[in-house]
Design brief:
The complex is a heterodimer of chains A (about 425) and B (about 450).
Chain A lengths: L1 H10 L1 H17 L14 E2 L38 E16 L7 E18 L2 E12 L2 E8 L6 E22 L4 E20 L8 E23 L4 E10 L2 E13 L4 E14 L2 E10 L3 E10 L7 E2 L2 E3 L2 E16 L2 E21 L2 E15 L5 E12 L7 E16 L9
Antiparallel strand pairs in A: 1-4, 2-3, 2-20, 3-4, 4-6, 5-6, 6-7, 7-8, 8-9, 8-10, 9-12, 10-11, 12-13, 13-16, 14-15, 15-17, 16-17, 17-18, 18-19, 19-20
Chain B lengths: L2 H21 L19 E6 L5 E6 L10 E9 L3 E9 L1 E2 L10 E10 L1 E7 L4 E8 L27 E6 L8 E4 L2 H12 L8 H8 L2 E5 L5 E7 L3 E9 L3 E10 L7 E7 L14 E3 L6 E4 L5 E6 L12 E11 L17 E5 L10 E3 L5 E3 L16 E4 L1 H7 L9 E5 L12 E4 L8 E10 L2
Antiparallel strand pairs in B: 1-26, 2-16, 2-18, 3-4, 3-12, 4-11, 4-15, 5-14, 6-10, 6-13, 7-12, 8-9, 8-11, 13-14, 17-25, 18-24, 19-23, 19-26, 20-24, 21-22
Classes of the chains: A mainly beta (about 425), B mainly beta (about 450).
Chain lengths: ~425, ~450
Amino acid sequence: MYLSTLNIFIKKKYIFAIVILIFFSVKTIAQNVSSPYSIIGIGDIESSYFNRTSGMANTGIAYRNGQHIILNNPASLSDLQNQLFLVELSSRAKFATYSGTSINGNLSGKDFSVERLSLGIRIKKWWGSSVGLMPFSTSNYSFSGTKYLQGTNTSLPVEYQGSGGVNRYYFANGFKITKNLSVGINTSFLGGSLTQNDSLFSPDLTTDLITTKNIYIRNWYFEYGLQYHIPISKKWEADFGATYAHKTGLRAEYSALVMDTNGDTLSNRVTKNDYFTLPNSTGFGISITKDKKISFLADYRFQDWTSLNMKGINYSLVNSSRYSAGIDYSRIKEYSGVLYETFNLQAGVFYHKSYLKIGNDQINDRGFTLGAGVNSKRSLFGYHFAFEYGVRGTQTSPVKENYTGITISISYKDFWNTKGKKYF
Amino acid sequence: MKKIDIIYFKSYLSFFILLSLALVSCDKTKIQFGQAFVDNSYSNIILVDTLTTELSTVYFDSLPTSGSGIMLVGNYNDNFFGKVAAKSFLEIQPPVVNDLAVNSVYDSLVLIIKPNKSYYGDTSFNSELAVYQLNNQLTLPQGQAYFYNTTDFPVNPFPLADINILISPNNTDSIPIRLDDGFGQNLFDLYKAQDYVMQSPNNFINFFKGLQLSASAGNMHAVYGFKDSLIMRMYYHETNVFNESKYLDFTFYDNDNSQFNQVKADRSGTPLTAFGGSNKEVASSNTNNEAYLQNLTGFLPKVKFPTLRGLLLRPDFVKILKAELIVKPLKDSYNSITPLPPILYVSPTDQSNILGTPLSVRGSSGIVTAQTGNLMIDPIYQENTEYSYDITSYLQQLILVSSYNQNGLLIAPPPSVNVSTLNRTIIGDQKNTQGGLQLKIYYVSINP
């Protein structure tokens, strides 16, 4: 089935070539918003799906939408519209200001990056499928510190820079088991590297010492989902969803490269091989829809970090819970006998007790989102915009981050396996 | 794809590019959070100042002193280096032969010497300078290009002059020494007669040989430096209605490195009696934990690094990042009478103790010059007086030498001045409490 899609790829090859090109180029140059907490663990684990649910605080475990690739729950892919093939590209612009106990004055940062590229098709009436690439975690920080020149009382300035992240290359499938029950599995390959670069400046010694530590992370990661649809009345219908991912050890290869100012390598070696374990994760969601126009959604996601007993100096990883709720209004028109969405409006709120506990302070993240989408009448493109405002940490946290994100998703829909007939 | 799609796509693409240009800044926001979460221990710079250096004094029997441009004359009794006596030997050339008036009459012959402002010793005392005529010509032996500090030539025991004078090196421009009149008259007659010996420098030297300048041994206060451009001036007058005074200049003959300084020392009663014979190198442990530098009398300190390779046994050792050698002259071993050499080079050497190319430094303009030691003088307490050297690249190479060796650094004045000054210093080894050697090695450490 993907072969047919490939034909379309070839037909539209220039568009895809360009899309993929931007994806990688913008992705690599544009990670500039510092995320101080991302120094811990495998970086900030992304809780956004960069899709149609982004305007609803990424609430969507029970959400189904045949016009969009919804990865919040792979079971939703079974609902992909027949004979449709979808390409979605999402990007996010982010602005942040920082305060908190370890910051004097106001600091801010901004960046822009392409976050997700997805391709989705319905392969059989009972089987929807998607492949793509999106971030799993990112690491991004920069600070200056000091280090003692051992054997002396002299301390030398050090600049620390963290970058990189773990990407998720996924292949997700949703299957309709019965009329109302769908299940799904998202098979991901998580791979990437987290880089920490520290530059020890020693002007008196006429050279600097630049240490680059890399953690290469890779493994397969499986997430399972199910959704159950209950028509309540003629007007009302309900969906329930659940997701689960089993505890997974990611292989982590630690390496370190030490160089001097001249660029001479002083040492380059693998320092250890270890695992970074992702915990058991569960999620539950509910969606209630009236007249196929207005949906009310709520999600709960839980990750069992505490039992992994991951601790460091002054921090520990503890159970995380994320609560979110959203509302979606969709304007539907009928066109040539097919229901067609002209635009949608969304809003959402979330509260996330994150897995990170620094001292006695479990860092939490809360905020609201707004979203709007429009489908072009004259072309095959659809656009979705999500605005997010959030606060991570409190005034008593080491860092309090007020952030604003704007996620822009563009989707391109086309038909395959049709004999030239287009419905819209 | 429809044309309209392409338009949309293009506008989306340009939107992306514009947005990314607007938002991408080169620097991440620096937020002072995270030091507690950094594993700081992997790579470090470590200072080691406990490595042993081995200090010794290397003794050179003789060294060439020909053609230095400086005449050293005088005697000094040094607590460390003994009784040092310097004499200078040189040749003189006659003026071009011209007809002298028949009525010309000899007046006097004066040797004019010019101090070059250098000295070694106490200049507040009078000196007794003597000028002797050499008995033999200053001829280099076959196959030899220089005369040495040990070379000697016999002189006529009756001096041409012997004067007692106070020399202020910084104030005295020139010193006139009246020479023997019988000798002067003789020269005048030969010149007036346009004798064969006045026809060329060679003829003159065959006849006259040369001069030796020395100081009376009874006066041990100082050795002075003079420019070699001395003049032997012959005054005469023509007897007319009024006497008209005139002179003729005999000048320094700079020929074949024939000018040289003899420097001898009587070291009895000093720690330096340990040297001589087969003892060409004596460890500081045998000389009061001291080493001696006075190039012209043959003493140079040598620093060796016998435990350097011990660094390689440290499991975390990666590379010497910087190495600094600090040489501290012994407290109270120097003063204005026996000043420190303003510039000292350090030159690699091996068991042969032959000086290699001095260690250099690249200046900010990129020009490579020899390291001078950047002498810092602590005029009050003398505790922080030091020469310092960056010996990084030297030790980076030395640490690679696995075989047993006598490699080290010789501390010496620059070749341009090493035979024209008696400036000296005494340095202590690491056990000397009055000033000694310090070795600071900064190395890159990486956790094993």
